Amino acid sequence: MSSYSIGQAAGLLGVSAETVRRWADGGRLPARRTADGARSFDGATLAAFAKARACDPRPQPPAGNGTATSVRNSFVGIVTAVRLDDVAAQVEIQSGPHRVVSLVTRESVEELGIAVGARVTARVKSTEVYVDVP
């Protein structure tokens, strides 16, 4: 299962690391401590939290992802649901206040290891959505 540091969680949620720290200290966002004492956030828990706060009307800055591409409409987010069929798959992503749903092949989901809690980037070009894994 995916896990995230405070900085990574902050980037996915579109808030500062200090905000994530306050949420964790206040019990709003469950965290566990690593061996060195740092906070760590479970991917599935973070996905549920991101989905729950998606209706927050405050603007959220986009998170960078370090991937070179010609596609300009990119949504860095966390996978909140994956529905598999025999051939196709539906991947639901929460990117700040934006919910993006992509229909891709089941084979792609399996090859990329896409699961709830994974950090992904949805790329929108024309009528197609591409999903990248960092």
UniProtKB/TrEMBL annotation:
Origin species: Streptomyces roseus
UniProt-listed SUPFAM superfamilies: MOP-like, Putative DNA-binding domain
Descriptive protein name: MerR family transcriptional regulator
Lineage: Bacteria, Bacillati, Actinomycetota, Actinomycetes, Kitasatosporales
Stretches assigned to the Mop domain: 68-133
InterPro entries linked: DNA-bd_dom_put_sf, MerR-type_HTH_dom, Mo/tungstate-bd_C_term_dom, Mop_domain, Transp-assoc_OB_typ1
UniProt keyword list: Molybdenum
One BP annotation, GO: regulation of DNA-templated transcription
Gene Ontology MF annotations: DNA binding
